[in-house]
Amino acid sequence: MLSMLPPGVRACVHLAAKQQGHRPMDLLAPTRLRADVADARMVAMALARRVLNLPYQVIGFQFGRDHTTVLHACRSVEERGDLGARVVALEDHIKNECARDEEFRRLFDEARRDAGRAQAKERRNGEEIGGDGVGHARVVGRRRAEVAR
User: Fold this and answer.
1) pLDDT (mean) for 67-90
2) What is the number of alpha carbons within 13 Å of residue 141 lying toward its C-beta?
3) Of 1.10.8.100, 1.10.1750.10, 1.20.1250.20, 3.30.565.10, which CATH number belongs to 2-115?
4) Is this prediction's pTM over 0.70?
């Protein structure tokens, strides 16, 4: 399942898992039993939102969660100082790696660009976009007015 994630999201999951001493697959598991894993998952979701600027729906799809779960994770990270500090530390790490490593920078630039394309298509078509956030979007819903026709 981890290999199916787009490179930008995969990097966020790896970094958040490594920072908190978990396996990346633990963050993608459907369970909610362990609070420390849930915290690491929230950090990874917030990191994907802040660094890649992905829509909540796309992040939720990648993690096998609803977009409201991602919204809750991002708000929780902002409210809780310990989690916010972890996200800031990971953001700094990513910025330093991007400055040092051309391949790393290209990976995150491509992910941001593809997220922007998906958002532009969503605005243009009035569709709710889900998918991997890297140009492989799929339509998961349309406006009610279009459905009622």
Assistant:
1) 91
2) 6
3) 1.10.1750.10
4) yes
Using CA atoms, how far apart are residues 19 and 128, in angstroms rounded to an integer? 33
Q: Can you say whether the dihedral through the CA atoms of 72, 61, 2, 14 is positive or negative?
A: negative
Q: What's the alpha-carbon Rg for the chain, to the nearest Å?
A: 15
d(C-alpha 134, C-alpha 118), whole Å: 8
Q: What is the domain partition of the chain in residue ranges?
A: 2-115
| Average confidence score pLDDT of the chain | 79
Q: Which tens digits make up the pLDDT trace of 98-126? A: 778 887 788 778 877 776 676 666 666 66
User: Tens of pLDDT along 16-48?
Assistant: 999 989 999 999 988 877 889 999 999 999 999
pLDDT at residue 131 above 60? Answer: no
